[in-house]
Amino acid sequence: MTRAQPNVLLITLDQFRGDCLSSLGHPIVRTPNLDALARDATTFSRHYSQAAPCSPGRASLYTGTYQMNHRVCFNGSPLDDRFDNVARFARRRGYSPALFGYTDQGIDPRRATGINDPRLSTYQGALPGFDWVLDLSEPYRPWLDHLREMGHAYDDHVAALMSEPERDESLSISHFLTDRFLAWLDERRPSSQSTSRSAHPSAADDDASPWFAHLSYLRPHPPYTAAGKWSREYDPESVDMPITPSEERHGFHEAVMQLPDTKAPSTERGMRRMRAQYYGMIGEVDAQLGRVFATLRDKGEWDDTIIVVTADHGEQLGDHGLREKVGFFEQSYHIVGLVRAPHHSGGHGRRVNAFTENVDVFPTLCELLDAPIPAQCDGRSLLAWLNGDTPSEWREMATWEYDWRQLYITDDADGSALNWPHDRRLERQNLCVQRGAKTAYVQFGNGDWLAFDLALDPTWRTPITDSSRVLPLAQRMLTWRSQHTERRLSGLKLEHGGIGRWPDDMPFQSPTR
User: Fold this and answer.
1) I need a surface site. Which of 83, 173, 243, 276 has the fewest CB within 10 A?
2) CATH number at residue 230
3) What range defines the domain where residue 430 resides?
4) Which residues lie below 8 Å from residue 458, measured CB to CB, with a gap of 6+?
5) What are 66-121's pLDDT values in tens digits?
6) Which residues are catalytic?
7) Using CA atoms in the order 389, 393, 398, 403, what is the torsion angle rounded to 10 degrees?
């Protein structure tokens, strides 16, 4: 017996690079549990985030829209409350969407209770629609309380994360989140001793409601300190080394290479240690997912659960002289992408090499749950790929954006940084990238541009200067922008009571609903 509506498990692994899967041939890192999932799921090997850092990247994931539309530009930039999102959608489908971890989405200031509303001082709120079962936004208080109970007291969360190698891995923040989710799952349905519900249905199974859970893991986000045995899993002397920066660099690249938060380690020893610890963090979250997957099987939930594994953005890890997530290089945006839809087995074990994006996740969940895709969505459903088919029309490139206007937003008394409408500096502090199969094009908000020949040099260090080759890339980006502008009312004609595509949030029943 199978429920009409499945469970949904949306997993984000913060800052997980897309190349760090052993199933995709990484020479060092080992991910046996994600590899096992890949054999029973669809792997999207060219999957990309649409923005960085966390808040912008997650806004695109949760709303299915590009940054040029949702306008969450940086950590601390609010999310407009008018947007639909995966949690609100899940609630409309009858779920009570549960959040374990964080979503890093700030409140729309127009929804605040007043100037003293504490939510106006943080971007680490929950995405509207979620029930926050475990709040692991900074400073991770539930985890710090747990450590204190276990005899490890820390003054702040940074010290607790930095000291993860000194404690047993069972006390890690990733292990803690997994424990809380598994306890929640057990409260909903005790273990069936590996008895499949589909083989042995019971009255309890009939009464059990489907669930929607978002597991938002912090790791492998920095600090670069893996937990317990995982900090020793990879020998620094044996790890691969990063792509060295080009001798001739754009001024923006040079500038971010000098910033303390994004400058790569200056010594080979420091570089090797950073990479070894990052791989260790990946190994540990892979082990935690192994626990989750095993429990789903044990409870007979495996074949009734849609699983999506992705990230909010990637990690430079020393490539091009950078660390963290910053700028235009694809290491900050190429991310893990796995989808398992049990009742769409045509794509199980399949590796898709077409360009897919995080904005595709929301539309995909809509189709998997037999619901209309909101008109706001810029992404496309991945359902055809999951069925083993190839869409007749698909994108030929991945697109992402990066914005650093927050450096110019201040509370100066004279308001010089926000002298609207005469001062337009904020609108120039951004870039957009399109990465195709053979080229990459970068357009800066101040009019500068870069182009790279990836067929000749996949490391993004060989520029294209021939204007006859650059012009089509710039035109392609212009076309992309024109095709992804706001569309929610643009498909409706005010004739005969309204014809065409009606908006999703009508106060009365429209003809298309």
Assistant:
1) 243
2) 3.40.720.10
3) 402-409+417-500
4) none
5) 999 999 999 999 999 999 999 999 999 999 999 999 999 999 999 999 999 999 99
6) 54
7) -130
Q: 473 and 365 share a domain? A: no
Residue corresponding to tokens 């409140």: 107
Q: Are residues 264 and 315 in the same domain?
A: yes
Query: Does 204 fall in a domain?
Result: yes
The DSSP element (H or E) to which 453 belongs, if any, is strand 449-453
Cα gap 304→342, rounded to integer Å:
7
Quick: pLDDT tens for 297-350.
999 999 999 999 999 999 999 999 999 999 999 999 999 999 999 999 999 999
pLDDT at 512: 63
Least confidently predicted of 1-15, 139-153, 189-203, 330-344: 189-203
338 and 461 both lie in a single domain: no
**Chain segment 408-425, per-residue pLDDT in tens:** 888 765 555 567 788 888
Query: Bridge partners of 501?
Result: none
Which value, in Å, is the radius of gyration of the alpha carbons in the chain?
23
Helix pair angle (141-149, 173-188), 10° resolution:
100
pLDDT at site 409: 86
And the tokens for 330?
A: 């694809």
Answer yes or no: are the C-beta atoms of 155 and 161 closer than 8 Å.
no
Q: Which of 342, 364, 396 is the last residue of a domain?
A: 396
Number of structural domains (the chain) is 2
Buried b (16+ CB within 10 A) or exposed e, 186-224: eeebeebeeebbeeeeeeebeebebbbbbbbbbbbbbeb
- Mean of all residue pLDDT scores within the chain: 93
Q: What is the pTM of this model?
A: 0.94
Q: Report how far residue 513's alpha carbon sits from residue 510's, in angstroms, rounded to the nearest whole number.
A: 6
Same domain, 439 and 376: no
First to last CA, the chain: 30
Kind and range of the H or E run holding 204: helix 203-207
Q: Tokens 């940084």 identify what position?
A: 417
d(CA 502, CA 505): 9
Give the C-alpha separation, 305 to 288, whole Å.
17
If asked whether residues 192 and 52 sit together in one domain, one would say: yes
- Are 228 and 113 part of one and the same domain? yes
- 147-156: Cβ within 8 A, 24+ apart: 147/171
DSSP letter, residue 296: H
CA 239 from chain center: how many Å? 26
User: What is the pairing mode between strands 334-335 and 42-48?
Assistant: antiparallel
Tell me which residue of 136, 133, 137 sits closest to 124, measured CA to CA: 137
Which residue bears the tokens 């898709």?
Answer: 352
Whether residues 194 and 268 share a domain: the answer is yes
Question: In sequence order, what E strands does 112-221 have?
Answer: 131-135, 212-217
